[in-house]
Amino acid sequence: MSGTTPATRGAAQRTATGRRGAVVAALMLSMALAALDSTIVSTAVPQIVGDLGGFSVFSWLFSGYLLAVTVTLPVYGKLSDTFGRKPVLVVGAAVFLLGSLLCALAWNMAALIAFRVVQGLGGGALQGTVQTLAADLYPLEERPKIQSKLSTVWAVSAVAGPGIGGLLAAYADWRWIFLVNLPIGSVALWLIVRHLHEPQRESLREPPGESQRQSRPKSRPHARVDWPGALAVFACGGVLLAALVQGGVAWPWLSAPSFALFGAGLALAALVVVVERRAAEPIIPGWVWRRRTIAAVNLALGALGLLMVAPTVFLPTYAQSVLGLAPVTAGFVLSVWTLSWPVSAALSQHVYRRIGFRDTALLGIGAAALVLFAFPFLPYPGEAWQPTLLMLLLGAALGLFQLPLIVGVQSTVGWAERGTTTASVLFCRQTGQTVGAAVFGAVANGVLAARLGGANDLDSVTRALDAGTAPEATRHAIAEAVHAVYLGAACAAALAFLVLLCVAPRRFPVLQNPGDRDGSAI
Questions:
Q1: Which of 319, 321, 339 is nearest to 329 (CA)?
Q2: Residue 136 to residue 85: CA distance in whole angstroms
Q3: Which residues of 110-140 are buried (b: 16+ CB within 10 A; e: fewer)?
């Protein structure tokens, strides 16, 4: 007599649940690595420059990492669809840990920047694959739980990162900022290797389509990697993002280096189109932009990246220069949105189950636009509680906006397309942040130059305020510059609203869990 007893089935279920819990812990640790690395280095810059020198190029500690993460996201997304999530995540975590070790051993600023790029090559795999695996592990009705956990990890890391970096730099050595990644990452890597077991992929070959009902993992008999396309995407993204990051900083916008980089970037973009159209398995397949749902989410989250620059980059300057707050207090004004964001994201499922993914996102981004538009109407100089309240409301609005779109778009594709889809969404959001930093930096500097005359920019003006040599009129000019940036961010939110309203379908065509025959729309 064959079969299993209830006790055996219960034991198997407990084993599977424990294994999934271990994998979730590994995903949260991996997300913490990627999130901490975005903030922990910033407070240690004086110690790093004092030890290694290279003050004129230290900004590339951040730019180099950002570029590497952004341009590798589409590549890792496609690789995870081709070979599975586990090998991509293992290789990415190993590369990130290698980069961390090399950063700790850096002997000059050039070496440290190069090793930060190595870190970024691994960080791209961590960010994209963690989000994809979160959707693989949980059915649609449970995905808000894991996404809210990941949002909480990101929020805690954003708040704790600068403090941890400052403590390590002050009381230990700045090299420990990178060495601390090794034990955390090693635990995550061990959990992934031991407990992540992906299901056997079937050898199916179907053309992707919006109505595809096959959601079980699949692979092709002879999987081929589009390495020419990957190289072209990497080169094109690197050149264009470098032009945006360094334009107006290392050289003027209207200068030979800017024209050369943008010209080379456009030429490489044309090459990407040619290579990808000829590739059997392109890194960036055309269906990513031909499907209304994915295209709308890509554009909307690109606008999200754009508008996030206003609070993250400019609010701390406003809080210190205009409100006169200490750096720690100014950081708290910004950090409150990391409290309301994950709470709102976790509760968003109760909204989108009633009115759908698109309308929930419309509600969130509409509220965000109103909050951003209200910022320029704050009184001068105002009280600290006023921008703090607005940031609390903004976090709640964006939690209601972002998570339904990510959960929704991941639910419209099967396993074999989920990595590419998730990577395209994250790539657009990262690119939006890069574009936003360049555009809003130019806006703020333009307002300051118009109000104060000459070639004043935000950095020079805030340094003068810190030294106590700037008049009260300068504070007014900074307030007006930041107000202009927030108006631009409100316009980006309005653009996201219009994209969702006009491009996204009223109901997302959701694929059901493996084993279900039909899909549905939410």
A1: 319
A2: 9
A3: eebbbbbbbbbbbbbbbbbbbbbbbbbbbeb
Q: What is the pLDDT of residues 354-404, one digit of tens each?
A: 999 999 999 999 999 999 999 999 888 788 888 999 999 999 999 999 999
Chain centroid, CA 308 distance in Å: 11
Cα 342 to chain centroid distance, Å, stands at 15
> Hunting for tokens 């279920």 — which residue is that?
13
Q: Is 225 left (phi over 0), alpha (psi -120 to 50) or beta?
A: beta
Please state, in angstroms and rounded to a whole number, the distance separating the CA atoms of residues 162 and 159: 7
List residues bridging with 203 in a β-sheet. Answer: 219
List of E strands, 375-462: none
Give per-residue pLDDT as tens, 23-44.
888 888 888 888 777 677 776 7
Residue 296: the pLDDT is 94
C-alpha 99/C-alpha 378 separation (Å) is 44
CB atoms within 10 A of CB 14: 10
* DSSP states of 57-73: GTTHHHHHHHHHHHHHH
User: How far apart are alpha carbons 446 and 456 in whole angstroms?
Assistant: 9
Question: Taking the CB of residue 473, how many other CB atoms lie within 10 A of it?
Answer: 10
Please report the DSSP string for 460-492 in residue order: HHHHHHHTT-S-HHHHHHHHHHHHHHHHHHHHH
How many alpha carbons fall within 13 Å on the CB side of residue 348? Answer: 38
Residue 201, token pair as written in the block: 């992929």
How far CA 291 is from CA of 136, 215, 296, 327, 508, in Å, comes to 21, 17, 8, 45, 11
Cα distance between residue 185 and residue 93, in whole Å: 7
- pLDDT tens digits for range 144-159: 778 778 877 877 777 6
The type of residue at 322 is V
CA 463 – CA 425 distance, rounded (Å): 37
**What pLDDT, on a 0 to 100 scale, did the predictor assign at position 201?**
55
* Mode of pairing for the β-strands spanning 509-510 and 520-521: antiparallel
Regions of the chain with pLDDT less than 70: 1-18, 38, 43, 55-56, 159, 166, 199-223, 249, 328, 454-470, 512-522
Query: What's the rounded Cα separation, in Å, for the pair 436 and 444?
Result: 12
Contacts of 167 (CB under 8 A, 6+ apart): none
Report the predicted TM-score, pTM, of the whole model to 2 decimal places. 0.83
CA diameter of the chain: 90
Compute CA distances 259 → 51, 85, 233, 237, 244, whole Å: 35, 39, 20, 16, 11
Tell me if 94 sits within 8 A of 189, measured CB to CB. yes
